[in-house]
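Why predict the complex rather than its parts? Because the way molecules touch one another can change local conformation, and only a joint prediction can capture that. The input here totals 731 residues.
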Amino acid sequence: MKTSSAVADDTAASVSGTAVGRCFAAIVGLGVVLRLIAWWFEPPLHPDEFFQYLEPAWMRLRGVGIGTWEWTDGVRSWVLPAYHGAWMKLLEWLGVREGATVGRFLQLHWGLASLSLIWSGWWGGRLVAARIAGKCQPQRCPPEADAAPSGWQGGLLGAVLCAAFPLLVTFSVHTLSELPSMLAYVPALVWTADLCGPAPGDDHERRWSASRQAMLAGALLGLSVCVRIANAPLALVPPLVLIAGRQSRLIVALTLGAFVPVVVFGLVDALTWGGFSSSFYRYVKFNLVEDGAAQFGISPTAFYLERLLQRLPIGLPLLALLALAGARVTWPFLLSAVGLIGYLSAQAHKEERFIVLFWPLLLVAAAGTMGGWLGRLRLSSGGRGRVAARVALLGAVAIVLADGSRRFAGYDFQLTRDRLDGQRWVGRRPDVTGLLFDSPLYTGGYLWFGRALPQATFAPELLENPLFSHVLVPRGSSEEDVASSAGFEPVFTAGSFVVLRRK
Amino acid sequence: MCGRAGADRPVPLLRGAATIWSRSRRSPGAALFRPSSVARRWVTLSGVALAVAWTAGLVGFVASPGVFAVDVPRIEQPPQGRHNLAQVSLGPTVRASSFYADWSAHHHPLFLIDGRAQPQALEKWASSPRDRRPWVEILWREDRELDTVVVRHAGSVEDAGLTVRRYQITCLDAGGRRRLASALRVDDNSQTVATHPLHCAHSRGLRVDVWTEANDVARLYEIEAWGR
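Output of the joint prediction:
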């Protein structure tokens, strides 16, 4: 019977740990490049990325901003805006005061922060692959010297999918709560799953080591739920994983860890809204008790399934089949992914960004299964069959990435960048005293304007107000004609938008 | 043979993070990333420095007064004779404790100085509902001799009941220092357009403090500061 280190030695015969490490580094490099491209080209996705998490911070800092109803009614926590606000203040001290530049920095910041998902993909993929291949699971059985770690095939596939899957890449630069929630939930689940299996060391060491890991996983889990309350039902999965893995005693440590962010968010609510966790209660009351989100649109129950299939018509069935084939090991990921779609489908208001967490969970599960099979092939198959199987599995990865790259644009909202470019251009004019635009909803608020001067929705009577020196409207629109008649002249064109200035 | 975990004693979360970090470093897959001690020190120091800087930023953010302030660009030079010192074209600075920043209608403080004779309901300054002691300051660029302040209340455009009843007008010196001795207190105003004689030599601005009723906001359409 092979020991785990002997298994690792088998793989080390042809692949060294250094080679795997180089591959991983290359994948991280690929992830960085793709995120930089997304940061440069990706247009804003949703008004919420300005008005929910950036504009409140800007308003708190500069005394000017647009306040949405959520911030009037206390439905949102101040933690995420405060996180952004700290960066804004730091940049202000460094001399970066222009709002659009600050906004771009924060988008880049989240793009780079999303690189942590590559690590989660690596870790999760290895974990699944090692278990499917029947090897000692990663981290608990490090092989000797420079041998490749067990499950490395799954790790690399998980990493590359998380690094390059187009939807994850493009979504990574949006300042929405779904992103940090996703970045916290995936490692929390991976680390919890990692706890279920044989561990090294004596009983005492093992117990404390596992408790510490469970606490950290719990802290991430709590953070994931607090940042995005809609993901709260997913908090049930990690405890289930521990129960199924006969590690129930770790649920206490997991819960203790989860309490840390819960208490922090609760206290911030007490300081800002006047009641412990009051934003949480108001959120639940509005969305679940009163079904208030329905006023923003109702979609059919199958909306998410349809959207997922539209995104990845070939890749999704492929990923699902792969993940299901390894369900014995991948079930925590599958349960989270399917559970997310299931309970969000039961809610009336649906937006595709709500389910972005579905993708890394499915990708890790599928990558791990493929990695596990590749690991088995190394031990059992003959030369030609092994090559064919490798080609087939790597082809599946290529299909998923290619399929995903065909339809990575066109979310429910897709703001045009032209309007934002025009708004920023006006904000940089030294003679501007006010701006009229066609819609406040699709702008970048006062943050993007960068000036504390008035902005208002276009109305012919407001053209008479001397404060409004500039107008930003679609080219060829009736608003442009009205503004021209009122004595404004075109001074700048941003794609399909035109900026007019008072003569 | 499985590797041995460290025999650390429990210290909750930070130790947990350290455990996971050390485990990941023991992983041969991460062998490529095993940095030299110098590089490790630099990475650690950079991380600590970033965390300290971000924490300082957080403190600065929380401590920020969040007061609205804007310097309006000067479009024209001030005339010689008596004129409205607060008019927008002269490039005053406007500061305010808050403003009503609703999604569809934000009642910006600069509407106070736009000089509109027949404004729309949008074109007024309204304070935030959470602001219990709203105030607004208008500062001009040179020393001026102020003689009269005209306040156009909400009642001049909307319902008369929206007119502010209690407020105080104070002259400001350079740097925005208040001349409390010159303060003019109005306790039971009912005029929709109120004209207040207020003589301040070498003034640099004026401040209006408003006492609002419970759950109400301050609403002012225009402030004119006449002088030479």
